[in-house]
Design goal:
The complex is a heterodimer of chains A (307) and B (308). Chain A has 307 residues and is α/β, with parallel strands linked by helices. Chain A is built from twelve helices and eight strands. In chain A, helix 3 packs across helix 4 and helix 7 packs parallel to helix 8. Chain B is an alpha/beta fold and 308 residues long. The chains are: A alpha/beta (307), B alpha/beta (308). Chains A and B meet through helix 2, helix 6 and helix 9 of A and helix 2 and helix 6 of B. Bound molecules: guanosine-5'-triphosphate (2 copies) and magnesium ion (2 copies). One guanosine-5'-triphosphate sits at the interface of chains B and A.
Chain lengths: 307, 308
């Protein structure tokens, strides 16, 4: 991709401004990472790691350190290539459960994902598991219409586990390839609501052994350090298998996924880049790392980066 | 809670210093370092933190901290002072128009909680000030946004003005004011679509809505979990619209809420209300001193100062 190609040149521009690998350089790196919401503890660790690398490899010029920065950060986010990809059931129906706090973009992501899968030739069904928020069912139905997939729903206020159960039965009988279950947003410190979510997952696992094949935690890139707490609590309740990082089309960088990867080892699988049906992409860690440093790069790129 | 509070951090630092008998300038630096970390972990913007730390350091070194037997207490007191100064007093009053209807506009990023807060705020003000609100559905973009506001209006038995999603939000807002006058509503709440602060077209749309409705209050609705980007968002919305205040949502979670400090610092406008849940009665006036303790992770600051 374009961003990917220009990535190396962007890093070049970063390092051009600094001759030596000195304290000042590391201080600016630290600041850039903190302003991307990477989180102080992770930043301090990463900076130490980079300093160590610089020392052991006897790196004096920032030019040489650039590869190390990419290597370390990108390598942290992608340990094996396939882990950033969604897991599908090779012999039967695939079920995704989508969870997260309020307003992060769960329903929108499901709409986009349904479209993407359908374009890949799969049959898709959606379960309107948010029976709580005003207008949530209608919202998912609009997305269902947009992508031309069926939505299984109950009335507002009904039991989400019952909706998901019905959707499972319908999906099985209609032999769809992928069932995606929406859930109501909930803050991770609400015990009752987290229990409710556990129950939804239990119903899925009971009715379809091996499912859900992905539990996707949707995180808003604008969120700061609390995202780590979200990842912890949702993992405990539902065993999160992947992250969808939304709203990366804004100016927030979503650096907290580095801390989440570091502490909980959950990979990012998809990113949201807007409100449109096509604004969903697979995660590319190089490109993401570039994004983290884009503020630092942009000053120079204007003048000498005409692609 | 995942983080230790500031006072725990300071206690640790002070334990190390105690052995030496006297506090040096370097020790004060060490203590302000802990303050810095605590604020960053709470998501206060790093630039806001920098200014803040400089002021604390200046005061701490210039003051009796160096000679004090209880340097930790002194530093906490200075931090508290500075924070209180930054946060300002309690200001949950609404600017009502002398010539009704009063117009209140809610703006912010996607998913921040505008629509829910529109319902909550109307509910709150109807009760507290004995008003007769009209809700206006000016989000024509998000799927089922109008339906969402209508459902909330239904739950509150409050009328919702809509013109569907084919008219422009500017037209809808203008017509809504006319309608409010006709039907003798003394207050109008305009729910706008979520948008990015860097989306020029949509930001311009807000300026136009402002121009045709002449709002008495423009509230920026901010998710309390927002990280470092809060300053960019607040700055941009404020530049375009001159917001009159902010409402912090989702404070019923376990976030420290450092965004509150950032928003206050960059816009200079008060935070007026906080959202404490999804239900329509979960709105409270903002308490600056509670927020300060929360950001620092210090439940009851005064008793901690005594303990220190
Ligand atoms: N700019 C941008 N907006 C997004 C993105 N994803 C979602 N949104 C917007 O964010 C808002 C909230 O999205 P929803 O899909 O309703 O979020 P949710 O997590 O389902 O919300 P609840 O069900 O209320 O918890 C909507 O206005 C979406 O259009 C994204 O990647 N970029
Ligand atoms: N726990 C909690 N949830 C809240 C609070 N305020 C809003 N929410 C939830 O946050 C989600 C988003 O709220 P909305 O009111 O739809 O947000 P919005 O800003 O109108 O979203 P868009 O119109 O898509 O930009 C919903 O699930 C709300 O129920 C709050 O104070 N606490
Ligand atoms: Mg939803
Ligand atoms: Mg809304």
């Amino acid at each position: 991709t374009k961003t990917r190609q220009s990535f190396a040149s962007k890093v070049n521009n970063l390092v051009k401004r600094y001759r030596k690998v000195d304290e000042e350089f590391f201080e600016e790196l630290e600041e850039v990472m903190i302003s991307s919401d990477v989180g102080v503890n992770t930043v301090l660790e990463l900076i130490d790691q980079l300093k160590d690398e610089a020392r052991t490899r006897n790196i004096k010029e920032t030019e040489e350190l650039k590869d190390v920065i990419v290597e370390v950060l990108s390598g942290m986010l992608t340990k094996k290539d396939e882990e950033n990809e969604l897991t599908f059931n090779p012999n039967g129906m695939t079920i995704f459960l989508v969870v997260g706090v309020n307003g992060v973009g769960k329903t929108t992501t499901i709409g986009k994902l349904a479209h993407k899968l359908k374009q890949e030739g799969k049959t898709v069904m959606l379960a309107a598991g948010d029976t709580f928020r005003a207008g949530a069912i209608d919202q998912l139905e609009v997305w269902g219409e947009r992508s031309g997939v069926n939505v299984i729903k109950h009335q507002e206020g009904s039991d989400p586990a019952a909706v998901v159960y019905d959707a499972l039965v319908a999906a099985k009988s209609r032999k769809v390839d992928v069932l995606i279950c929406d859930t109501a947003g909930r803050l991770q410190n609400k015990v009752n609501l987290m229990n409710e979510l556990e129950k939804v997952k239990r119903v899925i696992a009971r009715e379809y052994p091996g499912a859900p094949h992905e539990v996707l935690l949707v995180l808003d890139a604008t969120t700061g350090q609390n995202a780590l707490s979200q990842a912890k609590q949702f993992s405990q309740a539902t065993g999160v298998t992947g992250i969808v990082l939304t709203k990366l089309d804004g100016t927030a960088k979503g650096g907290i996924v580095l801390a989440i990867r570091h502490e909980l080892d959950i990979p990012v699988k998809l990113i949201g880049l807007g409100e449109g049906i096509n604004d969903l992409q697979t995660f590319d860690s190089d490109q993401f790392v570039y994004g983290l440093f884009s503020d630092l790069f942009s000053e120079e790129t204007e003048s000498d980066d005409h692609e | 809670m995942a983080f230790e509070g500031l006072s725990d951090r300071l206690q640790e630092t002070i334990k190390k210093i105690r052995g030496k008998g006297k506090v040096s300038e370097a020790d004060v630096k060490q203590m302000t370092r802990e303050v810095r970390l605590a604020l960053l972990e709470a998501d206060v913007n790093f630039k806001v933190v920098k200014d803040f730390i400089n002021r604390v350091k200046e005061r701490a070194i210039g003051q009796e901290v160096l000679k004090s037997l209880t340097p930790g207490q002194q530093v906490i007191k200075i931090v508290q002072d500075e924070l209180a100064g930054l946060m300002g007093g309690e200001q949950s009053k609404i600017q009502f128009s002398p010539k009704p209807p009063t117009v209140i506009m809610l703006v912010g990023l996607q998913g921040a909680g505008k629509t829910t807060t529109t319902g909550k705020l109307a509910n709150y003000i109807r009760k507290a000030n004995n008003k007769n609100p009209l809700l206006v559905a000016a989000d024509v973009y998000r799927p089922a946004a109008i339906k969402q506001l209508q459902t909330l209006g239904g739950q509150l038995s409050m009328p919702v003005f809509t013109m569907g999603d084919k008219e422009s939000p500017v037209t809808i807002a203008k017509e809504a004011i006319k309608k409010a006058k006709e039907d003798h509503h003394d207050i109008v709440f305009i729910d706008t679509a979520g948008r990015l602060h860097v989306d020029d077209t949509l930001m311009e749309e807000l300026e136009e809505i402002k121009a045709v409705t002449d709002p008495n209050e423009i509230f920026l609705v901010v998710d309390a979990m927002t990280g470092q980007d809060a300053v960019n968002v607040a700055e941009s919305f404020n530049e375009r619209l001159n917001i009159t205040g902010a409402i912090l949502t989702k404070l019923d979670g376990d976030t420290r809420g450092g965004a509150a400090l950032s928003v206050k610092a960059v816009t200079g406008t008060p935070i007026k209300f906080v959202g404490m849940g999804e239900k329509l009665d979960a709105l409270e006036p903002f308490h600056p001193e509670r927020m300060a303790s929360r950001i620092l992770g210090m439940g009851d600051v005064l008793s901690l100062i005594e303990k220190a």
